[in-house]
Design brief:
CATH architecture of the largest domain: 3-Layer(aba) Sandwich
Shape: globular
Structural class: alpha/beta
CATH topology of the largest domain: Rossmann fold
Strand order of the largest sheet: 2-1-10-9-11-12-13-14
């Protein structure tokens, strides 16, 4: 049984159970298993009436919703290859992906997105709006129990476009076999986390379904006894999170960093004995984790008895774990939530590996790592400590790019482009991206990500840090946000004091405006587009390497 057959069977077994909810300002909108099956049947009838057949491609451009899930499953049930796209992507980038995929149909979340598609891609094929697609009878109604088109393990089910951090995005082709295997692993790991219980898992979700790991989470929920609660407004994520009362939630590190900062700022604002208990308990906890001695048992005991339970209640009260992926999570943030009694489980993977390669085992978490490789997946280190992956999760190739496919899969292993190392416990640690490696004129090789992470955490008000210096004699950094130079230089001096000379950052440029997706300086999932940043700030970077440090904000540190 493949993953789609399993999901449809589970929906049919418990028709009255609520499976997906949209959290809206006006209230919740819920759908039962039977209602979701009816929507899937309506979408399948639409696809059939539109003449789409197995192997055709259908683009799906919409925010997360019940309709998105129904249309995605319906397309797969018809053998149609889904091309999910990010609703906030720049129109020119959307048009490039659509031209590359050449879908027979584009399904949009609303009229505004439809107009964006038509303006950016005048030669677009038919465009349908999701609500219209699901609401209108299309030809002979198809029963909700109708069997899906037969899918072999090698049949493509989706083409997901990568973020394109340094060039044009590539379409990653994933097969039914890829997805079926990964879901068997994710559901098994969630079973370990949740144990045996009669009630459905409560899962909160805000990350766009067009990203592989987010889509896998949606399918995992539908493959288990869960209710998936969707945030429909990014400005309300914090309120929706509390309202959802989740057992777990998949996050990007940036949100966990903001949650941590918000908690610490609120405690600092309260002051008095509350702040004292927290400060001393945290110091005691970190000493124990660092192996630098005990002490502080009284403060830690007080916090565990009085303070930490109150914080957990404010976060919803039901949290069994916070799951983090898409980028490295700072170990300090992971330890912070562990101190509160909330495990943070890390996941590592790429679109090309169906979103997952490693997952933390809930019972054996090693802070600062992303867990062991999941069963059946081989991982090893290649040249320059590049992580290589082989297994049933690895994609079959890039859409219409045979040369790049051959390069990525050279020697029968997928070359991730990530540098890593494995701990004695068998867990993996991600060091940085191979293509981001900075080679100084002295010949020293430096991964910028660890330095950027440390500096961003240390400097008050910093939004992003970009370290540069490839081919130069020293490193420099661009820092965005509401940052005071005195504070930045103080923290930089402290960081440099613990670094060998070649890893010290010798100049800073302060930029008040943060880098954004809309400016083209971040990818759709928030990663740095380093080449675009280097081009945009070319003059400012050059100023950091002039002997006198010319430039209003660019000065030697």
């Amino acid at each position: 049984m493949n993953y789609l057959e399993n999901i449809l069977a589970r929906l049919g077994q418990s028709p009255a159970r609520i499976v997906v909810e949209e959290l809206r300002p006006a209230g919740k909108v819920s759908v039962t298993a039977a209602e979701l099956l009816e929507r899937i049947a309506a979408a399948r009838a639409f696809f059939a009436s539109a003449g789409l057949r197995k192997g055709d491609r259908c683009a799906l451009l919409a925010a997360n919703s019940i309709a998105w899930a129904a249309v995605d499953l319906a397309a797969t049930a018809q053998g149609i290859v889904v091309v999910p796209l990010y609703a906030r992507q720049a129109p020119a980038e959307l048009a490039a992906m659509l031209r590359d995929a050449q879908p027979r149909l584009v399904c949009c979340g609303d009229a505004a997105l439809r107009d964006v598609v038509r303006a950016a891609w005048p030669e677009a094929p038919a465009v349908a709006i999701l609500d219209d697609l699901l609401a209108t009878p299309h030809g002979r109604p198809q029963p909700a129990s109708a069997a899906p088109v037969e899918l072999a393990g090698t049949d493509p089910v989706t083409i997901i476009y990568t973020s394109g951090t340094s060039g044009e995005a590539k379409g990653v082709v994933l097969t039914s076999g890829n997805v079926t295997y990964i879901l068997s692993c994710t559901t098994a790991r969630l079973d370990r986390l949740m144990g045996t219980r009669p009630n459905p898992d409560r899962v909160f979700h805000y990350l766009p379904f067009c990203f592989a790991s987010s889509w896998i989470l949606m399918l995992s929920c539908l493959s288990r006894t869960s209710v998936l609660r969707l945030s429909t407004d990014l400005t309300r994520v914090a309120d929706d999170f509390r309202a959802a009362q989740p057992d777990y939630c998949v996050n990007v590190p940036a949100l966990l960093e903001r949650m941590r900062a918000s908690i610490e700022n609120q405690l600092a604002a309260r002051g008095g004995i509350t702040q004292k208990i927290f400060r001393n308990a945290k110091a005691a906890w970190l000493r124990r984790q660092n192996g630098s001695g005990g002490g502080g048992a009284l403060w830690l005991g007080l916090a565990r008895a009085v303070l930490f339970p109150a914080i957990r209640r404010r976060l919803g009260g039901n949290l069994k774990a916070l799951i983090s992926g898409s980028a490295p999570l700072g170990i300090e943030t992971q330890l912070f939530f562990m101190m509160l009694g909330i495990p943070v489980l890390q996941v590592y993977g790429l679109t090309e590996t169906t979103g997952v390669c490693t997952m933390d085992d809930p019972g054996r978490v090693e802070p600062g790592t992303v867990g062991p490789s999941i069963p059946g997946i081989e991982m090893k280190l290649g040249d320059a400590d590049e992580i290589l992956v082989r297994g049933p999760n690895v994609f079959c190739g890039y859409w219409n790019r045979p040369e790049e496919t051959a390069k990525a899969l050279a020697g029968g292993w997928f070359h991730t482009g990530d540098q890593g190392e494995q701990t004695p416990a068998g867990n993996w640690r991600i060091i940085g991206r191979l293509k981001n490696l900075l080679i100084l004129s002295s010949g020293h090789n430096i991964a910028p990500e660890p330095l950027e992470e440390k500096l961003a955490r240390a400097i008050p008000g910093a939004q992003q840090v970009v370290v540069v210096g490839h081919g130069r004699s020293y490193l420099a950094a661009l820092v965005t946000g509401d940052v005071q130079r005195e504070n930045a230089e103080k923290e930089l001096a402290r960081l440099n004091g613990a670094m060998p000379h070649y890893r010290q950052i010798r100049a800073l440029h302060l930029e008040p405006k943060a880098l954004t997706i809309e400016s083209g300086l971040l990818t759709a999932n928030g990663k740095l587009r380093r080449e675009a940043v280097a081009a945009r700030f070319r003059d400012e970077i050059e100023a950091m390497y002039r002997p006198a440090g010319a430039g209003r904000n660019s000065q030697p540190a």
